Amino acid sequence: MLIAHAGKRPRIDATAWVAPDATVCGDVAIGPGARVLHGARLIGEVGGAISIGRDCIIMENAVLRASQRHRLRVGDHCLIGPHAHVVGAVLEDQVFVATGAAIFHGATLGRGSEVRVHAIVHLRTRLEPGAMVPLGWIAVGDPARILPPERHDEIWAVQAPLNFPEWVYGFDQTTPDLMVQITRRLSEVLGGHAHDSMIAS
């Protein structure tokens, strides 16, 4: 279904196809030959644009999101696998994001890079062109260090200074009652969906 949000309507090239049970909401542009499969969700919040390039494939139940702080751009000939989560990042051309992978705010994935099944590219991380994140591993930092999950202390040493709450939500991680502040702000922003309007199904 296509949904207008905050005065922005999805723009879908005439040669693209969106499954009838996928959701495309807000400021989303889908390029020529792209395919958005069943159950996928592409959500451009207020001020958050999503751009999907030529011949991209967004598989079943993938979630792509953008916000005012973190827009999302997917280049040409990218494939985003089932149940993948991509938010506020830049994917250059010919990137492969496998099933269940997660790409976070401010990440950049260079041309031809691969993020394999259940792998993570953390916020503000830069993958070089052609880089590969193995199954279940984590890429963190700029330039990326690619580490197995059991090396949590090394991952956290790079990740902690990136200050996820500040980068994503605008609150420093030392803010008192941090989750209260985050959820109140998100509630206000997401409450805007009460005024969305269906364009087509």
The CATH topology assignment is UDP N-Acetylglucosamine Acyltransferase, domain 1
CATH class: Mainly Beta
Inertia-based shape: globular
- Multimerization state: single chain
| Radius of gyration over all CA atoms, rounded | 17 Å
In CATH, what is the homologous superfamily? Hexapeptide repeat proteins
Q: From the helix content, strand content and strand pairing, which structural class follows?
A: alpha/beta
The largest sheet has its strands arranged as 23-22-19-16-13-10-7-4-1-24
Distance between the termini: 4 Å
Unreliable runs, pLDDT <50, ≥5 residues? none
Q: Can you give the mean pLDDT?
A: 93
**H-E string:** EEEEEEEEEEEEEEEEEEEEEEEHHHE
**How many beta strands in the DSSP annotation?**
24
- Beta percentage is 25-35%
Q: Estimate the helix proportion, in percent.
A: 10-25%
Total DSSP helices: 3
Major sheet description = 10 strands, mixed
Assign the CATH architecture. 3 Solenoid
Integer tally of domains:
1
Write up what this structure looks like.
With 201 residues, this protein is of the alpha/beta class. The chain has a single domain (2-200), classed as UDP N-Acetylglucosamine Acyltransferase, domain 1. 13% of the residues lie in helices and 31% in strands. The chain has three helices and 24 strands. The chain has helices at residues 152-159, 164-169, 178-190, and strands at residues 2-4, 11-12, 17-18, 23-26, 28-30, 35-36, 41-44, 50-52, 57-58, 63-66, 72-74, 79-80, 85-87, 90-91, 96-97, 102-103, 108-109, 114-115, 120-121, 126-127, 132-133, 138-140, 145-147, 197-200. Strands 23-22-19-16-13-10-7-4-1-24 form a ten-stranded mixed beta sheet, with helices on one face. The protein is globular and about 50 Å long. The mean pLDDT is 93.
